[in-house]
Every structure is written in structure tokens, then in C-alpha cells.
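Exam prep: given the inputs below (a chain plus zinc ion), describe the expected output before reading on.
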Amino acid sequence: MAQFDVTSLKFDTEGLIPAIAQDSESGEILMMAWMNKDAVQQTIKTGKVTYWSRSRGELWVKGLTSGNTQQLVSFRFDCDRDCLLLKIVQKGPACHTHRQSCFYTEVRDNGEIELMSPVDK
Ligand SMILES: [Zn+2]
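Solution:
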């Protein structure tokens, strides 16, 4: 087996790569956020999913303040090496709106928007 080399991933011009978090048990897609090289390495090393916060400009250990942590189960990248798929165990809701998944807004074929998930506080 070849050794993983973080520099073989394709980071964008800002040094970031999108990471999709998927519930390892239900298969539900929970959220998408960004990682830089350090976030990738820290996530793999610690097993605690760590993103890059574009708004704060710093590493962001998911759940460090909210308690809604993500434990890494598997780390994959896609065929183009420009997108990550993290299978995780999610503690509490993944979304800051207190929903399990960030993808709760659906656009119907008549153009209407529907909220698919209530807020479970
Ligand atoms: Zn969200």
C-alpha cells in the first residue's frame, strides 16, 4: 500500500479543499466545510475532525465549543483528489442551526422552498 501524501491532494488557490461529512451509520450527508493541509493532517492524526474556518481564519476543531464533535471513521478523497469524504460519528447536531444536517432546505420543482427538518433543540 502506498503512503498518503497530503501534498498530492489538489488544494484550491486559497490552499483549501472541500470536505463532505457523512454519518457513518445512517449514510446521511451532514455538512460541507473546508480544510487546508494542516486541517487534513490534524484530522487524520487526532481522529477529531478539524476544518479551516474561512470566517475566523484559523483551524476549527469541530465541536470544541459546542460539544457537537465529529469522530473520524474513514477519510477518503475522490478521483480528482479535489474533494474529501469524511465518514464520521456525529455527536449532537452537525449544523449550527441545531439541525442534524446542514442540507435541510429543498427547492421543489415548482420553485418553492421547503424546510425538510425541524429544529430539534
Ligand atoms: Zn449548518
